[in-house]
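Lab manual, section 2.4: Encoding a predicted structure.

Procedure: take the sequence of the chain (215 residues), apply the prediction step described in section 2.3, and record the output as structure tokens. A sample record is shown.
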Amino acid sequence: MRTKRKKWRSQRQKHHVILSVAAVILVGFGIWFSTTNAYTFLKGYFLFQSAQITSAETPKKIKENIQEETKNKELYSSRPNVGDNIGKLYIPKLEMELPIYHGTNEDELEKGIGHFAGSVLPGERDNSVLSGHRDTVFRRLGEVGKGDLLVVTTSAGEFTYKIKNVRIVDKEDRSVIVPKPKATLTVSTCYPFQYIGAAPERYILVSELIDSTIY
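Recorded output:
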């Protein structure tokens, strides 16, 4: 019995010694590691990995920030009054340049294209609506269709739109002026073009902004 106790005590002492030696080795290794290039290397490695993750996310964040800033940017320092000349519309297909006036009363439509005062100005996010007479400024608008370009120049810049859709609607159809999620230019005139009297329909070109140069 005594022999077994001595053997147990001896094993226990050896176990304590091993643990003590291991603790000393670990402490020594920790001190060595923190004062050598190994620590610097691993610290740099983890920083590098972190930077890679951040850099992978950065382009997306930058793009989102730019889009948000562009969306919220004020293109016009002031709003026009009815009757003001706010710019011009160039139709490459027809090689035709036409003046745009703010408002769609007969006074504006007699001088050129009218900009519906209840819509946003060209270049702004949402639906900018232009109208003109079929027997004056928009006499040849029927030759313009899907895929053609419309270029509007104002005090804010030059805005290029591409026609995405051509519609013929009833003259009472108010969907022409509804808000849009993107910068949109809607151009409207009476239809049919050769109709005698008050035309019952409207010829509509719906275009989306594809390029812009801000002044």
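Check your result against the sample. Residues 85-214 form a domain with the Sortase; Chain: A; fold (CATH 2.40.260.10).
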